[in-house]
Amino acid sequence: MRAMEKSDRPEVFAIRLLLLIGARKSEVLKARWENVRPDLRLLIVPLSKSGKPRHILLSDAALEVLRAIPRTPGNPWLFPGHAPGKPLSDLYLFWNRLRRELGLADVRIHDLRHTFASFLVNAGHSLYEAQKMLGHSDPRTTMRYAHLGQASLLAAAEAVSGFFTSCKSSDRTQGAFPLLAGRNPLWETAYSDRTGNRRKETERRAP
Description:
Helix content: 40-55%
Number of strands: 3
Shape: globular
Radius of gyration: 26 Å
Largest sheet: 3 strands, antiparallel
């Protein structure tokens, strides 16, 4: 996003929208001004890949991008193409130059949709929400897009642990599985075998 601040080309606005709303490239490039509904915070796709209309939610940042797009009088397209009466056909030339400048030569335009889904799920939103926002009819497709990071998975594991190990400050009641004080020789032996730390000391203590 910072790199694109140096350019005012129409491709910049399109790529910003792709990052902010998780739409397909064709849904953005073929968008008409009549399909933009700021009052409802929607970009309406009359005919999506599923063969049905699709309603894409617009965040505040997405609305700002739309307001900043230069509008050509009498032209219905958000991103007019070089041919008269046609929308912008592709973003490849601009995107290819940009991704190489950023050291992201293997990142495709469609990967921005994966990025949107991953950020969404890693922020704690459900796969159901991601499915609706991406316009997938099959939740299994959404699962391929939403890549959970280790931090999110660890936070989920800790959330479950909290139900069993937390203490209530009011009456000091311990959870169902209170944490045990002291040291576990078996744990230390297993751990030390991998790290090399404290192995000899543990072996001396073992009965």
